[in-house]
Amino acid sequence: MQFMSDNAARVHPQVWAAMQAADAPDSPYDNDALSRRLDGLFADLFGRPCTVLWTATGTSANCLALAPMVQPHGGVVCHREAHIEMDEAGAPGFYLHGAKLMLADGAGAKVSPETIRAVIDPIRDDVHQVQPHAISITQASEYGLSYRPAEVAAIGALAKERGLGLHMDGARFANAVAFHGCTPDEACGSGAVQALSFGFVKNGGMGSEAIVFFEPGMSDMVRYRRKRAGHLQSKGRFLAAQIIAMVENDLWLANARAANAAAQELGTACGGRLMYPVEANELFVTMTAAEREALRAQGFSFYDWGADAARLVTAWSTEPAHVTALARAISAL
Amino acid sequence: MQFMSDNAARVHPQVWAAMQAADAPDSPYDNDALSRRLDGLFADLFGRPCTVLWTATGTSANCLALAPMVQPHGGVVCHREAHIEMDEAGAPGFYLHGAKLMLADGAGAKVSPETIRAVIDPIRDDVHQVQPHAISITQASEYGLSYRPAEVAAIGALAKERGLGLHMDGARFANAVAFHGCTPDEACGSGAVQALSFGFVKNGGMGSEAIVFFEPGMSDMVRYRRKRAGHLQSKGRFLAAQIIAMVENDLWLANARAANAAAQELGTACGGRLMYPVEANELFVTMTAAEREALRAQGFSFYDWGADAARLVTAWSTEPAHVTALARAISAL
Amino acid sequence: MQFMSDNAARVHPQVWAAMQAADAPDSPYDNDALSRRLDGLFADLFGRPCTVLWTATGTSANCLALAPMVQPHGGVVCHREAHIEMDEAGAPGFYLHGAKLMLADGAGAKVSPETIRAVIDPIRDDVHQVQPHAISITQASEYGLSYRPAEVAAIGALAKERGLGLHMDGARFANAVAFHGCTPDEACGSGAVQALSFGFVKNGGMGSEAIVFFEPGMSDMVRYRRKRAGHLQSKGRFLAAQIIAMVENDLWLANARAANAAAQELGTACGGRLMYPVEANELFVTMTAAEREALRAQGFSFYDWGADAARLVTAWSTEPAHVTALARAISAL
Amino acid sequence: MQFMSDNAARVHPQVWAAMQAADAPDSPYDNDALSRRLDGLFADLFGRPCTVLWTATGTSANCLALAPMVQPHGGVVCHREAHIEMDEAGAPGFYLHGAKLMLADGAGAKVSPETIRAVIDPIRDDVHQVQPHAISITQASEYGLSYRPAEVAAIGALAKERGLGLHMDGARFANAVAFHGCTPDEACGSGAVQALSFGFVKNGGMGSEAIVFFEPGMSDMVRYRRKRAGHLQSKGRFLAAQIIAMVENDLWLANARAANAAAQELGTACGGRLMYPVEANELFVTMTAAEREALRAQGFSFYDWGADAARLVTAWSTEPAHVTALARAISAL
């Protein structure tokens, strides 16, 4: 019974079906009929014009999304536990040609206008210090917290005031939208975000994420950067097909709701053990080594989180029976 | 009837089957059981120890393969019509942090020890000029010519003499092996090549190429570079599955033989129109605009190659009836 | 008797005097009174507004001048024997983060609208090929030829038409201006050039070149790039002092005239041996090994230029007696 | 009466004299007689073999020194207030092609084995996290504290144990040696440091720092990197001359002793106001705005250090009368 990672989850049958339907000759790269549908599909979803590029991974999505906002001599403000800082092997430094990540604080891996200002205000306006060019926030955060629409909007207002770009790492964007019951556009602060990495791989996809640019012109240079990074797959129609399958009929939302519901069920069982409120599909739970051992002995797999806690992750495909079993097992600890 | 690109070809049913068989939870990234099989699989295939990394595209495969050979201040000797020079959007400059491509001549986009020496011998051994660090050759070449094992070995001997790395862009490696009827190892000059980009996408795969390192230690740093480039897919088991399906039971070879046979049939029909011998699955054919128009009117699609020629590409899935039809149509021009 | 390089020439006494006059405490970096005079000084010299940054070397001047024009995924069209291609150790690849030099032909290392078009016109307007972002020309060229004002203007018109930046490597800009007897602005095509590397080191300076930006805003980001490249010297007042000494009272022009006159005297003696007209302070002269040996035996030092020629370079400080002696010796060969 | 920066200090007369003596034709770049003396000069000074390259600035010295130790996908552990992190405009990210600075704590901007371990021990040994490749320490630190020889040796032992390079930013190395009365080699932990940026500009030079490599082979690639960064000045003999003048007859030490003595005199006057012990030529002094105002009214110039403190810097050329005057003025506050 697997609660280790939503990356380990299965590919949704509708995604498989869409990929197989795409297996007919078409133009290579992103000149196929499916890839050309993406802009319109997301414009409908967000209710505002946008351009959309597919790429295989969240890391490349984040870095390519930041590229038009950040010069090599600039910086990106993000939380000190952000995925781009902790888990992408220095990819932003590579893609942004040496630009610097500027680390902000905030409970639950969420930044705020206050914690961002604490980073950027002390920077002298001279050529000796790296100047911030953009802000990157994670929706839902690395601790499973989801920014409220108003919180994103407030960060966006600060970004605008300071002339900074705003990027959202939406590896679990679907879970945040599902949690808040808001629209996708609201989850982006109603126009505050200029570039969104919209994740599908953790939510039923195989290997395709969408980079959504709301700022006109940004995607123009990113098309070159994507190819230059070796991410313009020649059979790109299979990436477009995955995304379309996820967006059409709101499969992305249904999957996220399933994962979130499983997380809520577990959260109720965890009670006071919870280190953070459950606002997506991840739980961070205080638990002794003996308790974790006991759960593993019952067949549950998950990651330790430091010495005294566990991380539990649900996915669209987590079996309800497994969830209920784990919830009972935790209650019984 | 499509003769535009092997990139537009279908995914082989055995590849589909292997991918679907992989759709069970396993460890993410490349810690799954399938990814761990690759080293052994290719060691058997080549008859020498090697380490193997998957990546989604030929461009990333080439650049990651070159990374351990080339310092940012060095250069890579390649043909002036090589894919890395002409068609990868400057990816080597990105992945190699500004390293320079040094362009050599040679008929049919094949370099030789002579044309390589013509590039590197005039370089002064001082700090004002970029020094070569590696050689990259394409097997089969951009004009569909396949290096003989002895030709690769001779280039390898030069590389060794000058202390240069040797990389092979094997986007159509299968076609070259099939054409020569040699072993994979012989097609690499029997140990001359240190890093091989072994292509599968054009030959029945979906989105997975193998980087094969024959030099101990090279893959260690490339594992970091692959992640840093956003090419470590979280559901990597699907990439490993594609490669295994292609290599097991020699599907790669069967597919290449089919594509080559189709190319030979067309080549016979083209006769004196052929600009280069047909040694893989690409044909470059002298043809007037009117002739091309006539063929297109009969339902054949292909790329123009300059003003007076056409490029025809066959694939594993090109239907024999289409091949025969095109052969007849060309003969009838 | 030294004719090897103008880099080996002495520092002009007026430059020494200005440096010593600058040896009083002032603000560090470029906040001193001298550095702040540069914009106005060059605006007067060129008759148009500009911003000016000092840097120690021609290589850093060229690369920093190109930085605001060229994105990492773009290219710079230059002559295939341009200094930035042949003699800067790949610095453009470093400073421009992997951007590509695109090599054009042209007699005497001069490009023209025709040879530039021959490079850029075949580039497909798609993401697979690096797109040109700028043109760089050398005034005077690597073979001592000086672009006519109209030639620069014509290249500028092409640049404008294609949306490309135009940079001039003016390591020997002074010699070109002196040769043509034109204004500095005319030597830049009367507004065609957006960024000029104005060289002083070969012309009586010690270690200071001026980067002159005629395009508003370009210098803003280059100030950061200069610091980031470690070229913002803390005692920058000594670099500013050198430039001011060279520009005030037209020392730069007087020095260039002296060097050019010496070159003309030698040119007359060389007669039919000249490989190129003498339009600056460099001569490329057909000469057998035995003849070169004979000259060296008489105490003249210079570089071989391939197997059958010599390169002779004059400088502001070349002694007239040495020039006359070499002219006679060549005539007597 | 200037106590703002040692960067604003004058150039020592012996340095001027040596530069002028170098003003005769010699081979360009670093092929001149003076540049070739440096290796031997520093081998004598340190009592161990080394290779030495000059460069104009501390920023380029630091970054070039780190280049052979740090791959683009690696990291450099340094103090979070280190000059390379705070004041070099992201130069390490540029020179090291995106490598990451990893920020350690420590009182007075000094790191220790403990604070370094606190940074590197939590890094997972997998490809998702940037791995440390080197450590960089500043001697004397950004707060004017000098590492004891045993402290450097202990950091070196940790570096060796973990396979990390060790770099020392010695912008004020002379002040540290003078303070401890140790040998230069002891100040480097008796062989612990592999590459040292030995600063002269703040200590009586004009624009020349020495990069000293104690590790055989490291300088080979840095020669290329220096040229590629535009730091190989064509009249390099003037940079070598400065360094030789500073090292011969121990001018560097005499100058540092003078600056340190001035700092000690001020330190005594500051008494309990001192935020850090005075171990070099910088003082950080608690002082109200009104007190600073009072000092400035008496003609003393210096930088504020936050809202409640001042930074005072002495130099080799600070006039004793000014020092005494400032000491008295502080005592009288």
UniProtKB/TrEMBL annotation, chains A, B, C, D:
Q: What is this protein called?
A: Beta-eliminating lyase-related protein
Q: A Gene Ontology MF term for this entry?
A: lyase activity
Q: Where in the sequence is the signal peptide annotated?
A: none
- Cite the source lineage: Bacteria, Pseudomonadati, Pseudomonadota, Alphaproteobacteria, Sphingomonadales
Per UniProt, the keywords (alphabetical) are:
Lyase, Pyridoxal phosphate
Query: Origin, by domain of life?
Result: Bacteria
Assembly mode: Homotetramer.
**Domain spans labelled Aromatic amino acid beta-eliminating lyase/threonine aldolase:** 2-288
Protein family membership: Belongs to the threonine aldolase family.
